[in-house]
Design goal:
This protein is mainly alpha-helical. Helices cover 53% and strands 0% of the residues. It has three helices and no strands. Helix 1 (9-20) crosses helix 3 (36-46). The radius of gyration is 11 Å and the shape is globular.
Length: 58
């Protein structure tokens, strides 16, 4: 499987938006096309919190 290029500024912003809207990790994977490991690493680097499974705020 080919690796995607480095994260662009636009992808960083998209990840921030998805995290702010309380999307689950699975939803972020589908929206970005990135692996869960890469998403977790980038979220940590950006200081974001992404919930692992369909856990949403009530």
């Amino acid at each position: 499987m080919a690796r995607k290029p480095r994260w662009s500024f636009k992808e960083d912003r998209r990840l921030m938006e998805l995290a702010r809207s309380s999307k689950s990790l699975e939803e972020v994977v589908k929206a970005t096309g990135r692996s869960p490991e890469r998403i977790k690493k980038m979220a940590m680097r950006l200081g974001l919190s992404i919930k692992p499974r369909g856990t949403t705020k009530k």
